[in-house]
Amino acid sequence: MTRPNTMKALEKSEPREGLWMVQAPVPEIGPDDVLIRVNKTGICGTDIHIWNWDEWAAHTVPVPLITGHEFAGEIVELGRDVTGLEIGQRVSGEGHLIGTESRQSRAGKFHLDPGTRGIGVNEQGAFAQYLRLPAFNVVPLPDDIPDEIGAILDPLGNAVHTALSFDLLGEDVLITGAGPIGIMAAAVARHAGARNVVITDINPDRLKLAEHVVPTVRTVDVAREDLQDVIAELKMKQGFDVGLEMSGSQAALDQMVEALVMGGKIALLGIPPGKSPVDWSRIVFKAITIKGVYGREMFETWYKMIAMLQNGLDVSRVITHQFGVDEFRDGFLAMKSGTSGKVVLNWR
Ligand SMILES: NC(=O)c1ccc[n+]([C@@H]2O[C@H](COP(=O)([O-])OP(=O)(O)OC[C@H]3O[C@@H](n4cnc5c(N)ncnc54)[C@H](O)[C@@H]3O)[C@@H](O)[C@H]2O)c1
Ligand SMILES: [Zn+2]
């Protein structure tokens, strides 16, 4: 391609609230990298933290930095040593950059590498017309997966990684938090053959969206309805077999522990704002297994997620807004409203 020198990019240019559209140099790629022309990106809760410049962001994100980590695009340049990928190929990719020296990586558990660095958080990100990515991180998009779905594979991957942490076939599953990820997890739990899938929230708009995306899910507004009544209504004998915590709320985790069967299992994706008190003796006496979930398994989550998308998993309605990138402020406003699903920005 005739390579432009500069590109539009959404940057954290100063250590204060906001993001700024700047002209940035198009990244130079190394021998093992590819250059991706970005078509669509998803806005993540993480990007809102970075926009707001809260304590976490101020401690984590270097300035200046191009933000964003959820993307789909096409390959326009291949590094000298890259094999197995092609110019023009439609791709998404894993935004966690890992090393290969740690014990975990050498055991093939790349997602557990303690040296993991995130694009758009620690390294230059995807809110730009071009993105440099190690070829290792690239995930080709099949023709039947459109770019807007490609742009939300990162959070769908969080949902898939969490939901597939435990066997769901025939199980009763409780999901706390009907944000975009909780809603997608409900769709995955259905696809994976769960019996009852119940999702809670305290925001009625989010529960409405959950019903819109996954019509067979039972939504519960825990501000108005008691989970124990729902357990009785669904004729479950003891409670839920598996819990997927996707709100980061301590109240939700407490409710989940109470609503689980003896020997139940919990996968925790939600990130509490700080330390949060837990009634450990309840967890011990109920013999509950708890697993923390970070990111996506490289690359088993990507494999399963694409296979499910090609075999009937439909999360398209979780995308509630699409904006041209020049209207990025409207996109962030929609996200900040707390009522949106996924918000996608178009870069072309
Ligand atoms: N571990 C990871 O790798 C990882 C990756 C991405 C996101 N996350 C976290 O996963 C969570 C879900 O992400 P998201 O983008 O869908 O977030 P989100 O903030 O859009 O959704 C969280 C939902 O939880 C709801 N909620 C609040 N209190 C509740 C309660 N008591 N009971 C039930 N629901 C309640 C909120 O109303 C909101 O709708 C967040 O905590 C996010 O920080 C973790
Ligand atoms: Zn994200």
Automatic annotation (TrEMBL):
Record's keyword annotation contains Metal-binding: yes
Protein name: L-threonine 3-dehydrogenase
CC cofactor: Zn(2+)
Keywords, in A-Z order: Metal-binding, Oxidoreductase, Zinc
Source organism of the structure: Shimia aestuarii
InterPro entries in the cross-refs: ADH-like_C, ADH-like_N, ADH_Zn_CS, ER, GroES-like_sf, NAD(P)-bd_dom_sf, Zn_alcohol_dh
Family: Belongs to the zinc-containing alcohol dehydrogenase family.
MF annotations from Gene Ontology: oxidoreductase activity, acting on the CH-OH group of donors, NAD or NADP as acceptor; zinc ion binding
Keyword Zinc listed: yes
Xref: PROSITE patterns: ADH_ZINC
The Enoyl reductase (ER) domain, residue ranges: 18-345
Gene3D superfamilies, sorted: Medium-chain alcohol dehydrogenases, catalytic domain, NAD(P)-binding Rossmann-like Domain
Pfam families on file: ADH_N, ADH_zinc_N
Signal sequence, start to end: none
